[in-house]
Design brief:
The complex is a heterodimer. Chain A is mainly alpha-helical. Chain A contains 15 helices and no strands. In chain A, helix 4 runs parallel beside helix 15. The chains are: A mainly alpha, B alpha+beta.
């Protein structure tokens, strides 16, 4: 008797790592990137950037976003040499097992800490804006539990979730920005380059660049792409959408409030939605509606981070399934979230964490690319960047 | 079935108990053992052994040797049959003598509850008892041939050598004729038509479209499927499931179109079922579905043959169960919840409009109560000022928080709904009117609920009734209670978390590997036109991609030709599109060319 079919194919957990179901498309990669980078930071983002860059904030965001694309490009170039592998496998391939695990652990620990801060930030906002009598621990735990349940799904399933929530993340916010524009003053935006371009724009750009977290996460999804050529398209689309979103948000808030008032507001985006109203006075105020909608944004950000850390740990320890780790990571996220005792310290933590993340995001691609190129030079002629041809496609269709 | 044991002339000529017939019997037994096809036989065999054990030890020796074959002695055969059926009163053993030169003993055996008595009398007993049908020259050796060729007018005429098989057919309503000196039983199909005639479907009623629904008779359902799909490629594969009682279950698909892996998987899942008895499609569904804890149905139940046929043409597989007026259609996806078969019979703008309203109704049935609680208890600032006054004045005097109010009313409505279903039909109508009028009105005047809550509850209930799929409506009705609870704790934030949990579940759910939310996610943009929107039929040129049908093409023509086809034949000088004009000119040229050809 030959082996049963189920034992040979993808269903067999032993083969699961060899056979990556190549079903995703470029839009999924874009959605993952958008999900990661549009999170609770958007609530305070206009204040932070405009404090540093003044009226040059939109320009700073534009430049920061372009800067943020460089690390992505770097890691994408590394991945092109190992298109079958995800980030965690690539680092083991490049540095050997032990060093590779160490290289994996730095971003995993970072994500554990960062995910906790993200969850805490949003939970605090919810408590102070709509649920003043609920303890912050409870709202936090609800959010973490929701994410933990979703993070159990496999990589393709994660990609589908992000793709599904992409329009829900984007369209209501864009509409909201439009509805609030009746209060806008064009003069608040000028001068476009700020009062001291050389000082303000780099500071603002760096501040914006550090809020971008999606450097490694797309590399978990890239091996599952149906067409490898679409990887760079997906990354560029995702980064473009993030940039568009943040740029529009910055311009809208700046045009409505102006630099002076923006500095006074803790969460300018939330204040902005208070200024909007639906035509036909269907609802009196919209801030709670947008807060509810931002639950999606926070959820998707948290989901990418949560899944990445669990998946990364599983990959580092050669585990077939990341699901048992998902549940056991919950206390770590909770502790990280509850570590900062109050909001000001939380925001200091976030700023420091962001800076560390920004530096790591510059260092990692440089190191990885250098080692990859050295290795390639060492075995010159043996391996070129692997062919971008498609050895396997699902029988009929694949995701976008 | 073991159909290979037809008696040959040679075997008929052999005297009883001869060496050759023993050899043949042994050969047949070995074949049965080695082929492994006759799983059914072995099951029935076991059953026979067990029952015989309990009832009568005297034929123990026979069964211990595992030889439940018909012998040539009729008295022995009758004893075996009588032992198997025990004290059942509906088994009729009518003994008679065939009027030959030397009368031959025979017996007709049937279950009186399953056969048509006139057929037994007219087509079996009458010819067998009439002396003029037996020519004096008829020898014993030719008796079987004579019966087969001249006496028994039955298209299904078959012989069995195996008792187990004969019993199985007896239970299906056939009659068994045993004749002394013939070591086989003769089966004659005289089943009485069971069940009701084809009636309009009860649950999935449609305004436009066919008014035929499946019945409890699996054969009737097959004939309905054959009527809606005139194709030799339509495959109906039956199998029997059950340990104590066997039930006929059939897989229906279109050969060369349906994905072969899907068919194999359905077969595998069906073959794994071992249960004492099955009498409804819903029982098979519980074995077929992928996720056993999900509130959402992953298998579609339908009582409409047209809907089933359309689904088969999309590349799905249908499962029928004898005794159930429903077909199970797999794999199921979410979009089917708000789609009705009649959408495809209607013109697309209307169908789109109706689908939209259905989707909205489904959404309402899920979220309205929780939105009400979230807005009144937590986020009052969202309610427009004028309306807030009305809400507040309505709630004056209501002693409970909004969540208790809504929860109580929802429970009342669920109880009413169930009561209306369970009551005899005429009482049911009365109680629904009494329930709605009296309870709603008196709850308000008693200060128990505010008028808006009654509106909210009504919206929920009516919304859930608008769904074409009864199962889906049930799922959403059930989910509104947990959603209500979490909204009562966390307000809008809770509603959102609840919806996220539901959507995440839907996103991870799969039916036979087809993502439950497809074609929305994973996206097949071409099929987005067949979700809430309904595209015209001539634009549906491929089958749903996620079903991975072997043959993707649906339409034989290019949609563009249909789009440009209309030609104003009755107003030839009116406005013509460029394409239409071209069409007309070529048509005229063709006719003129023909005429000129005639002239010369």
């Amino acid at each position: 008797m030959s082996q049963p079919v189920a034992q040979q194919g993808v269903d067999n957990p032993e083969n699961a790592r060899k056979f990556k179901k190549r079903e995703l498309g470029s839009w999924t990669i874009a959605a993952v990137l958008v999900s990661t980078e549009i999170g609770p930071t958007i609530l305070g983002l206009p204040r932070r950037i405009s404090t540093l860059a003044g009226t040059a904030a939109p320009m700073a965001i534009l430049l920061g976003g372009l800067l943020g694309f460089l690390p992505l490009l770097g890691l994408w170039a590394v991945w092109r040499y190992y298109p079958e592998l995800n980030f965690f496998e690539i680092s083991k391939r490049l540095f050997g097992h032990t060093a590779g695990v160490v290289f994996n652990f730095i971003p995993i620990l970072f994500y554990l800490w960062y995910g906790g801060l993200v969850a805490r930030e949003f939970a605090s906002i919810v408590v102070s804006a709509v649920l003043p009598r609920t303890p912050v621990e409870i709202t936090l735990l609800v959010m973490l539990l929701t994410t933990a349940i979703a993070a159990r799904d496999d990589v393709v399933g994660q990609g589908r979730m992000h793709l599904f929530y992409l329009p829900l993340l984007f369209l209501p916010s864009l509409l909201g920005m439009l509805f609030g524009l009746k209060e806008a003053h064009l003069s608040f935006l000028q001068p476009f380059l700020g009062n001291a371009p050389l000082r303000q724009i780099p500071a603002g750009s760096w501040a914006f660049y550090t809020t971008l977290r999606g450097i490694i996460i797309p590399l978990i999804f890239l091996p599952f792409l149906a067409k490898r050529k679409e990887a760079i398209v997906g990354l560029a689309t995702g980064q473009g959408l993030v940039l568009l979103y943040d740029l529009l948000l910055m311009i809208a808030t700046l045009a409505v409030f102006g630099v002076g008032e923006l500095r006074q507001l803790e969460w300018p985006t939330l204040e902005y939605t208070k200024a909007t109203s639906l035509p036909g006075s269907l609802l009196e105020r919209l801030d709670s509606v947008f807060l509810a909608q931002w639950v999606i944004a926070v959820f998707t950000t948290l989901l990418t981070v949560y899944h990445a850390s669990a998946y990364g740990l599983a990959q580092s320890f050669n585990l077939v399934d990341h699901r048992p780790l998902v549940t056991s990571l919950l206390p770590f996220f909770y502790c990280a979230a509850m570590a900062p005792p109050n909001l000001p310290i939380l925001y200091q933590c976030i700023t420091v964490t962001n800076s560390i993340g920004g530096i790591l995001a510059l260092l990692y691609p440089v190191i990885y690319l250098a080692v990859t190129l050295l290795k390639q030079r060492h075995n010159r002629g043996a391996t070129q960047p692997q062919s971008l041809e498609i050895p396997y496609r699902s029988a009929v269709g694949h995701d976008r | 079935m073991a159909g290979q044991h037809y008696p040959t002339r040679q075997s008929m000529l052999q005297p009883a108990g001869s060496q050759q017939s023993q050899q043949e019997a042994r050969h047949a037994r070995e074949q049965m053992k080695t082929s492994g096809v006759d799983l059914l036989d072995s099951i029935v065999l076991q059953k026979i052994a067990l029952e015989a054990d309990a009832v009568n030890r005297s034929i123990d020796t026979v069964l211990a040797k595992r030889t439940p074959y018909f012998a040539e002695e009729i008295s022995y055969n009758l004893r075996v049959i009588r032992t198997l059926f025990g004290e059942s009163n509906d088994i009729v053993v009518r003994e008679l003598e065939l009027p030959m030169k030397e009368p031959v003993r025979a017996a007709l055996i049937y279950l009186s509850s399953l056969v048509k008595r006139e057929d037994i009398n007219n087509f079996i007993l009458r010819p067998l008892m009439d002396k003029k049908h037996f020519p004096p020259a008829l020898s014993l050796e030719m008796l079987y041939q004579h019966l087969h060729a001249h006496l028994l007018p039955d298209g299904d005429f078959r012989t069995v050598s195996h008792v187990a098989e004969a019993v199985h057919h007896l239970l299906e309503g056939e009659a068994l004729l045993l004749v002394d000196t013939i070591n086989r039983g003769i089966l004659i199909g005289v089943e009485a038509p069971k069940g009701r005639s084809v009636e309009p479907p009860n649950i999935e009623s449609a305004v436009l479209g066919p008014q035929a629904g499946f019945t409890e008779q699996i054969q009737t359902n097959f004939s309905l499927m054959r009527q809606y799909l005139h194709s030799s490629d339509l495959r109906v594969v039956t199998m029997e499931i059950g340990r104590t009682a066997l039930t006929k279950v059939a897989i229906c698909y279109i050969d060369g179109l349906t994905n072969t892996d899907l068919i194999a998987e359905v077969r595998r899942r069906l073959a794994m079922i071992e249960i004492d008895g099955i009498w409804d499609a819903g029982m098979i569904e519980q074995f077929l579905e992928d996720n056993h804890v999900s509130p959402f149905p992953q298998v579609q139940l339908s009582e409409r043959p047209d809907k089933t046929a359309a689904n088969l043409l999309e590349g799905r597989v249908a499962v029928f169960v004898d005794g159930s007026p429903f077909s199970l259609i797999v794999p199921g996806v979410f979009t089917q919840f708000y789609q009705a078969s009649e959408d495809y019979n209607e013109r697309w703008p209307m169908a789109t409009f109706i689908r939209f309203s259905r989707a909205v109704a489904l959404f309402f049935s899920l979220v309205t109560p929780s939105l009400y609680v979230a807005l009144t208890e937590f986020n009052q600032e969202l309610i427009p000022a004028n309306f807030a006054v009305a809400v507040a004045s309505g709630r004056v005097g209501v002693p409970f928080p909004a969540v208790i109010e809504v929860f109580a009313m929802e429970v009342v409505v669920e109880v009413l709904r169930e009561a209306t279903l369970r009551m005899p039909q005429r009482l049911g109508q009365a109680i629904s009117i009494v329930g709605v009028l009296v309870i709603g009105q008196s709850a308000i005047s008693a200060g128990f609920a505010s008028p808006i809550v009654v509106v909210v509850v009504a919206l929920t209930t009516v919304g859930s009734f608008a769904a074409p799929s009864y199962q889906a409506a049930m799922a959403l009705r059930m989910l509104r209670f947990p959603l209500l609870l979490i909204s009562a704790i966390f307000g809008l934030y809770g509603t959102m978390i609840g919806l996220l949990l539901i959507f995440n579940h839907l996103l991870s759910l799969k039916s036979f590997g087809v993502p439950f939310l497809s074609p929305v996610v994973p996206p097949h943009p071409k099929e987005w036109l067949d979700t809430v929107v309904q595209r015209p039929l001539w634009l549906r040129d491929t089958r749903p991609k996620e079903l991975k049908a072997e043959d993707q093409k649906r339409l034989g023509v290019d949609p563009a030709t249909i789009w440009s086809n209309p030609t104003n034949v009755l107003e030839p000088h009116g406005y013509l599109s460029r394409r239409g004009l071209k069409h007309l000119v070529t048509a005229r040229r063709a006719t003129r060319g023909g005429q000129s050809g005639e002239r010369t």
